[in-house]
């Protein structure tokens, strides 16, 4: 036998008691979520607010002020002259429908509450106090429709999708209820109000979601770029550290044979040092080998890492690419002796990235690019200054050299130095790095 279950009819369709209960619970849950969406404080920001230009960030506020200044007197005049509403009502209602546009850029939801209530009260006032509506649009006067649509755009740009849906549903319900109060009038104003508000909310929401997706993509791209640059630096330092560890191993192994009369205990100590160095070198190669294989397909890089001695060739390649570059090196050698390889490698890469950026972002610089390298007071100072751009030039390298300022900052931080970048007085750009020569890194003491 088939068990009997209680059922009821909903809009002509049979539905079980359990199904009706689940449907009602879902409707209530969505209603609660929509009501909460109308009560949550402002969260998002207008996409223009992320711009680096101050005038672009101020543009939404300027447009809101212009809209309020235009619609406030227009709305009051239309209510007085076209609809015949008494001045004691036309002034406050017209102001309440337009003045909140001043808050559209900063508090669109709060402005929507005021404008929506003012529009509903205006429709009721026109129905009760107006002398004769005649062929005038009702329940929404044209200035009210324009102001409402202008407010829907920043609302959709600032608020999540659930809030815009709740706003549109409230708009539809208000339009339907007001239409029922005067069924004999044409629904044209209502239909226009509902359709256009829905379209504006939809378009604004699409722009907001696209902007958020683009912002998320940019953040992920910046994070990936930073990780790639750190991996590249780790691969290069692998060669530097491997060289020094190999020297330690060779010196420790050969010490008993190079030095006569070494005690047995010293021989054992040298042997332990060599063993520890070999073990550390093997572990480091296993750890960083994957970084090398990801970038070069597993082929070892046999060329030595560049240093200050290769700066001349680097600047010459920039000159051949059409950049008027000039190199000055001072203080290298002498009392400082041989500089740490990690420092000279970082200095070379900083100059390389700076020259590449000159070609990419400031082609045809009017003034010559000056590259100054100076070892003084326990630090290696690197400064690159270029003039303003005027004409395009061909790329310096076919495959690029890295990730610009990100790579410079990471290499400077690696050796415990500081990096300063900014515009010059004539519109050029300056990069200045100070790299300590004592081998300390942030958080360490010499």
From TrEMBL:
InterPro entries reported in the protein's UniProt record: HATPase_C_sf (IPR036890), HATPase_dom (IPR003594), Sensor_HK_TwoCompSys (IPR050482), Sig_transdc_His_kin_sub3_dim/P (IPR011712)
MF term (GO), any: phosphorelay sensor kinase activity
Residues in Signal transduction histidine kinase subgroup 3 dimerisation and phosphoacceptor domain copies: 229-294
Catalytic activity: ATP + protein L-histidine = ADP + protein N-phospho-L-histidine
Residues covered by the Histidine kinase/HSP90-like ATPase domain: 346-438
Organism: Streptomyces harbinensis
Protein name per Swiss-Prot or TrEMBL: histidine kinase
CDD domains the UniProt entry points to: HATPase_UhpB-NarQ-NarX-like
Main enzyme class: transferase
Membrane-spanning residues: 58-79, 85-103, 110-128, 140-157, 164-182, 188-207
Sorted UniProt keywords: ATP-binding, Kinase, Membrane, Nucleotide-binding, Phosphoprotein, Transferase, Transmembrane, Transmembrane helix, Two-component regulatory system
Listed EC numbers: 2.7.13.3
Pfam families reported for this sequence: HATPase_c, HisKA_3
Any one Gene Ontology cellular component term annotated for this protein: membrane
């Amino acid at each position: 036998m088939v068990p009997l279950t209680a059922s009821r009819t909903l809009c002509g369709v049979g539905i079980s008691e359990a199904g009706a209960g689940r449907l009602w619970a879902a409707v209530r849950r969505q209603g609660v979520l929509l009501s909460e969406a109308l009560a949550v404080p402002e969260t998002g920001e207008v996409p223009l607010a992320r711009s680096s230009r101050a005038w672009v960030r101020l543009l939404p506020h300027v447009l809101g002020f212009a809209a309020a200044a235009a619609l406030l007197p227009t709305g009051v005049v239309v209510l007085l002259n076209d609809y015949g509403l008494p001045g004691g009502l036309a002034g406050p209602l017209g102001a309440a429908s337009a003045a909140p546009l001043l808050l559209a850029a900063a508090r669109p939801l709060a402005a929507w509450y005021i404008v929506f209530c003012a529009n509903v009260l205006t429709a009721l006032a026109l129905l009760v106090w107006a002398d004769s509506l005649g062929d005038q649009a009702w329940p929404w006067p044209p200035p009210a429709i324009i102001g409402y649509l202008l407010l829907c755009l920043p609302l959709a740009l600032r608020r999540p999708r659930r809030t815009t849906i709740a706003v549109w549903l409230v708009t539809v319900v208000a339009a339907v209820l007001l239409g029922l109060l005067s069924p004999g009038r044409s629904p044209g104003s209502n239909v226009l109000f509902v359709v256009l508000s829905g379209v504006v909310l939809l378009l604004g929401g699409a722009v907001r979601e696209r902007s958020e997706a683009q912002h998320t993509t940019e953040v992920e791209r910046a994070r990936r770029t930073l990780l790639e640059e750190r991996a590249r630096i780790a691969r290069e330092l692998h060669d530097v550290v491997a060289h020094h560890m190999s020297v330690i191993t060779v010196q420790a192994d050969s010490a008993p044979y190079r030095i006569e009369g070494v005690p047995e205990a010293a021989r054992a100590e040298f042997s332990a040092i060599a063993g520890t160095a070999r073990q550390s070198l093997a572990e480091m190669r296993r750890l960083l080998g994957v970084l090398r294989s990801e970038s070069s397909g597993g082929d070892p890089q046999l060329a030595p890492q560049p240093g200050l001695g290769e700066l001349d060739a680097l600047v010459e390649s920039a000159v051949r690419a059409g950049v008027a570059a000039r190199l000055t090196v001072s203080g290298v050698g002498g009392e400082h002796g041989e500089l740490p390889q990690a420092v000279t490698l970082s200095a070379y890469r900083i100059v390389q990235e700076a020259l590449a950026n000159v070609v990419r972002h400031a082609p045809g610089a009017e003034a010559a690019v000056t590259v100054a390298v100076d070892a003084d007071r326990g630090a290696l100072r690197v400064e690159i200054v270029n003039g303003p751009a005027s004409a395009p030039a061909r790329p310096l390298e076919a495959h690029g050299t890295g990730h610009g300022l990100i790579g410079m900052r990471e290499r400077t931080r690696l050796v415990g130095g500081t990096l300063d970048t900014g515009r010059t007085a004539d519109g050029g750009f300056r990069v200045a790095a100070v790299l300590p020569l004592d081998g300390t890194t942030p958080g360490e003491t010499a």
